[in-house]
Amino acid sequence: MYQNRIFFIGDIHGQFQWVQAFAARLAACGQAPLDESDWIVLLGDSGLNYWTEPKRARSFKQKFTTLPCNFFIVRGNHEERAENVTKMYPENWNKIMIPSKCNAIQGLVFQELAYPNIYYALDQPSVYYLKGYKTFVIPGAYSADKPYRIANGLEWFASEQLSDAEQAMGRQIAYANQHFDFILSHTCPSEYEPTDLYLPMIDQSTVNKTTEWYLNDINHITKSNFWLFGHYHQFRVYPIHPGDGQKIMMFNDKVLEMDNILKGNYWETI
Fold this sequence. Notes:
By secondary structure, the protein is of the alpha/beta class. Helices cover 25% and strands 23% of the residues.
């Protein structure tokens, strides 16, 4: 019998061992192993499109095919847009509706033909349904270490944040819907920024906060029951502000199942 579970993990930064460790913990805590009906949602900075050249990216992406489950990828800041990679290698990619047999998550995605169990959320604000729950996915963030990356020849992606047009699209979606069961993003609204987790070597006056300010607008335009994000490399369950939904910061060593979130079991990680 299919389980149709959905699990959420924060940034793994190209280290698949975090996913493997989670899969092993499922058995250790007496849960059923992953199957083809299960989904793992990665909340940005997965590393899947950190390298855009197919041969260079192959070894990492192939690791995802070793598990029988599906992956739903929210874009962070340390990876290229799936849409841009599609334009570079159109023969390798499709833009599809997730097949109905994979009915735990529904919506329009990018899929690389060689890795059919990896589904990339669109690169602009978009609506999906996760087990029937209306979910607003808002990708992107600013790389606080951008000057260091550029100076040292590391990968940096010019379109890491949403464009003005994409932000406007997201506001239209928010005004039209007013309420979501879930919002998934890579970074968080500015009101929820964990200032205690700022990198001490980075002058915050040089950090572009456009995405966080934008998400703050979205948080005031629309209401959500749950908002999950990553980016800050720590697991944290926020106190609920009056009139606001539950905010949860995810990282790679803690995994939450959607059913537990819906029950309010925010600390019951795997």
